[in-house]
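User:
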Amino acid sequence: MKQHRGDVHGLAAAYALNAMAADERDMFAVHLRQCAACRQEAAEFEATAARLAAATAQAPPAAMKQRTMAAIDGVRQLPPRLPAATPIAAFAAAVRRRAVPLTLAACLAAAATFAGLAARQHRQNEELQDRARQAERRIDDISGVLTAPDARTVHGRTGNGALTTVVASDRQNKAVFTATGLPAPAAGKTYQLWLEHGGTMRPAGFIHQDGIVLVEGDAAGAGAVGLTLEPAGGSAQPTTPPLVLMALPA
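Assistant: Predicted structure:
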């Protein structure tokens, strides 16, 4: 990506995501040694990108092995062969005749159990894959905004001391909101984002605590991005004064 020399402070996101040409990256690395603000911002973007990537990894259900082993233990085996003495042999034959239907029934029950486990595992795998695809799309959208040629970056600080950053792109019609040091909301409360259009605040999604989120809604033409503390589930209009309201440059 190419930007004017005066925009060098806006390249921290592209540097963190390795979205710069080799010569630009080398030049910006020299700038990082001289600019503490850009070093901190690049480190925050790198940490957030790592957390987003880790969110796509899903471990298999921990109880799957236990359920499988329990089902195996429930399968009844055939009795051992006994010596060929006539009374014992007759008894063994009777036991085997009775054991055969019991074993078949146990096998059928085990097969049904394994079929149920397989179906459940298939559903769980599909759900995990869906969540992974959604996370990948979010990462792609966020990366697209952070590396957009027309990206605009604004920094702020909330009333409760958190550092915030908004990166917006009219070309992408999207904005990204980042928070660092945002305390957990009280029980029954949530942090809600807002986009200001012509003096009207429109709901723009949520952020639960520290992290980076894609702002919902049309960011192109928005005058500001705000953050309020709202009742769980969100509100149609802000019910509390904004913790931070960051005007976006034209």
